[in-house]
Structures are given as structure tokens and as C-alpha cells.
Amino acid sequence: MPWEYDVQEGEELGFLSDEKVGEEGNHQALLNAKLMDRDTIILADTGAHMSVVHLRAVESLNLPIDRRKSMRINGIGPNSIRTLGTVPVKLTIGNGIAYYLELDVCDLGNVGFNAVLGMDFLSRAHMTIDANCREISLPGGEQVPLLHQPTRYHQGNIQYLEATKQTWIASGESAVVPIQHSLPLEHDEPEYWVHRGVKWIATLLSGVDEQPVAVRITNIGSHGISLLPRTRIGAIAERGERPLDARMVRKNSNRYRVWEDEVYEGTFTSRSLKKQVAQNTELEDSTPLKEPKE
């Protein structure tokens, strides 16, 4: 018996086959299909409760997106992402079983498939995934083999940057969080991403070598805010990877420059801040002290 565990009455010991490096059985349930009569690869995911189609496939097929319905979904990567709308599609699986359905559209990032079939589809289509034989059983008895290729959502190195402690930021002011690198940087130069909230925007502060050394969080609202610990404020990623958060933008992108303009408009000049501090100090000094009641 491994470790110090006991087999209880009514139980029997289960055994796993020897795991091999690059074991094909560990690969996800990818299969060939047709999307709008074009060859594609899709992922059958029993861990997903809803089915989605990749934005890049929708754009490639020039399909119209109905943007009236949008929602946040979890389970794809470490943080939630927002769907961009819905689109009607024709999906063909196996030797000609065609499904006409409406799928939610979202940007899945750098992945090797163009759609995810969740339990909402698999259960209603009466499909069965056989992990041992690596095949999917379709209605009528047809067996569709799964592809022997690994896939990932965004396993390439991504380091998320977070607030380390609860921080109060007054209107128009900023807080700085130093960047502590944990990615192996011997590969390509990493890309830096920043996040934002409704009332705050994260921008990057660079060192002497033009490499970002800290993240500055600026309160662009009219009231003070409290930034909670572990609030995501940015990310560092290998080239070709992207954090799956619709609100993150890459440094040097056009949207990043727009955010910098918003930060500029939402802050005060140094002279204005000094004047405000002086006024507050003068007000405190001029406030008479209340005499204690006898």
C-alpha cells in the first residue's frame, strides 16, 4: 500500500496504468469538424456548462454577431471573460450530422481550436466521450476519433500582477506596485499588459533600460477608492500569449495610449496637489479646539 492509507470494508484497490512522457491519453478531447462547411478543430469539454465559438473563427467566416446579449463566463483560464454576443452557425460532426444552433462568441486567445462544446450541447446531442478509447460516440452508433495533439488555453508562461495589500487612493492620486519577475526571461522578450477598473487605471513605470519596473494605479474618479489585496492590475506574458481578460491591453497598443490620456485628465498637477495640502493644513490649524465639558 502506498503511503499510510487503508482500504475500507467494501472497497477495492484501484490501479493506474504507467504514465509515459507525452502520453496521448492525457490530451484534451479535440476532434475534427466543419464550421459553416469549413474544416476546423473543436474541443469537447465536459467541464464547461456552455458552448462558445472563437471570435477569430467568426471574423474569418465573416459571420454577423448579435451583440444584444453578453455575459461573463468562468472556467476558461484563471479569470472570467465576457462574451461578445451570439451568432447562428452550422456545425457538422462525423460523417454528416449537421447541427444548426446559436453559440456565444468570445475571444479564447491563442488556442488550437475554434469552438468549445460544453455540456449544454453534449447532453442534448446525446454524445458520449470515451476517454479510454479516445473517441466520441454519436447518435446512431458512429464513433468519431479524438485527435492526438495536446492543446492549452494559455499555459505558456503568464505572470499576473496583483495589488499586495489594501491601499487607499485619493481622487486624482496614484499608488505604485513594484514588479517582481517570476517568468523565465531567457526566451523572447515578454509583453506587458495592464488592467483597469471603473474608477482606476493601471499604467507602467519604466526604469533606465526602458523596461517596466512598476505598475502605477491611478484613481481617475471624483472620490477616493480602496484597492483590495490580490486585485489584478496587469500581466507579463510570453509573446504569442495573452491574458484572457477583455479589459487588459498591451503596452504600446493604441488603447494603452488612450488609457494614458484618461490618466492625465484624471490627475492633478504637482502644484495643485501642494496647494490642496496647504489649504487642508491651514484649515486644520484654524479650527478651534473644543473645550472639554465640566
Automatic annotation (TrEMBL):
SUPFAM superfamilies: Acid proteases
Species per Swiss-Prot/TrEMBL record: Aphanomyces euteiches
Name recorded for this polypeptide: Peptidase A2 domain-containing protein
Region annotation (Disordered) ranges: 275-294
Classification via InterPro entries: Peptidase_aspartic_dom_sf
Pfam families: gag-asp_proteas (PF13975)
